[in-house]
Amino acid sequence: MTDTAALIAQMAQRARRAAVQLAAMPAPAKAAALRAAAAAIRADTQAIQAANAEDMAAAEANGLSGALLDRLKLDAGRIEAMAGGVEAVAALADPVGDAIDRVERPNGLVLTRVRVPIGVIGIIYESRPNVTADAGALCAMAGNAAILRGGSEAIRSNRAIHAALARGLAAGGMPEDAVQLVPVTDRAAVGAMLVADGAIDMIVPRGGKSLVARVQAEARVPVLAHLDGLNHTYIDGAADPAMARDLARNAKMRRTGICGATETLLIDRAFADPKPVLAALADAGCELRGDAEIRTIEPRAVAANAEDWDTEYLDSILSVKLVDGVDSAMAHIAAHGSHHTDAIVTADQAIAERFLAQVDSAIVMWNASTQFADGGEFGLGAEIGISTGRLHARGPVALEGLTTYKWVVRGTGQARP
């Protein structure tokens, strides 16, 4: 056993012991510990900012993209939002112990499905140091112990946030090992987590395509997958022009580096006037990529290639295409989307309902910006990620998605004949 494998095994053993204690903690006690953690994060704002400044300087020197730098950056406002997110999780209803359903069999047996924690959850993530607080808080509130492995580009920030979080949770009465941070940046630590079947109960990857691909290829532990945000906004022929312009600009340009950003804009050829939509995007600094038809409408656009329709830019770049109605739009989404978030802008309810029913994505939207693809905006508090799979949990995953269930059977002496 290598030193890294031994390290992960030891962390998992401590996490398992902590998970047993967490599973038995009442909701008010967990909430109080999270509020203490939020207070500790606020108290350490200067230390977190100082650590983040070192990470930012190193990242800029290493040539990280603007989108990744935006994900990495922590200012006082983002740290306050992080603390507020932990408090929001504390205010959520605890799903542990909830009865999903109950039935009484003809023989008198009473069967109940009850929500229980998953156990030990490993989170592997890149760039975003706020995940340290979000994931730790969500796992703990759902009664799970967490093992966090952040990216090397955010190691100083992650350590500072984790130190505050762990101090607050312990002061609030949670076990010391409720939320652990892998102390090394060695990529072998990721490999050790992925094969820790029986020690870690679920892995959640949050990062780029290469990270998720590696996790899915190597994991011997169940994975809650978060794939690319290859999101589409479709402007239907019946769309309100002003709404279409404003939503397209917001969906792409509000924050280009988040997974809810639109990466491809589809416009119905029957739409009244696409020029103001494209001009608003170009005026906002967005590079538009399209075919000759698009470049005729907006001369600032550049030629698209085949790869553009399958690219998550996470930058001020947008692929644009004219399509022949909603069926053509849905066919394009089916061929190129990642089942994350797709939106339609239209005043025609019948067309909107077809789109919502037939597009096979974790989140589908009508007359709303794809930037709302976020657990906080869904009222879930912080999120562990947005699952694009079809099993266990789908869409923004928060407390409920971090639980499983068990069957509780109550009898009065029944023996099976």
UniProtKB/TrEMBL annotation:
It comes from the Bacteria. GO terms for molecular function: glutamate-5-semialdehyde dehydrogenase activity; NADP binding. One of its GO terms (cellular component) is cytoplasm. Pfam families: Aldedh (PF00171). Residues 4-282 form the Aldehyde dehydrogenase domain. Its main location: cytoplasm. The keyword NADP applies. Keywords: Amino-acid biosynthesis, Cytoplasm, NADP, Oxidoreductase, Proline biosynthesis. It is found in: Cytoplasm. Pathway: Amino-acid biosynthesis; L-proline biosynthesis; L-glutamate 5-semialdehyde from L-glutamate: step 2/2. The keyword Amino-acid biosynthesis applies. GO terms for biological process: L-proline biosynthetic process. It is an enzyme of class 1 (oxidoreductase). InterPro entries: Ald_DH/histidinol_DH (IPR016161), Ald_DH_C (IPR016163), Ald_DH_N (IPR016162), Aldehyde_DH_dom (IPR015590), G-glutamylP_reductase_CS (IPR020593), Glu-5-SA_DH (IPR012134), GPR_dom (IPR000965). It catalyses: L-glutamate 5-semialdehyde + phosphate + NADP(+) = L-glutamyl 5-phosphate + NADPH + H(+). PANTHER family: DELTA-1-PYRROLINE-5-CARBOXYLATE SYNTHASE, GLUTAMATE SEMIALDEHYDE DEHYDROGENASE. Belongs to the gamma-glutamyl phosphate reductase family. Catalyzes the NADPH-dependent reduction of L-glutamate 5-phosphate into L-glutamate 5-semialdehyde and phosphate. The product spontaneously undergoes cyclization to form 1-pyrroline-5-carboxylate. This is Gamma-glutamyl phosphate reductase. It comes from Sphingomonas leidyi. The gene is proA.
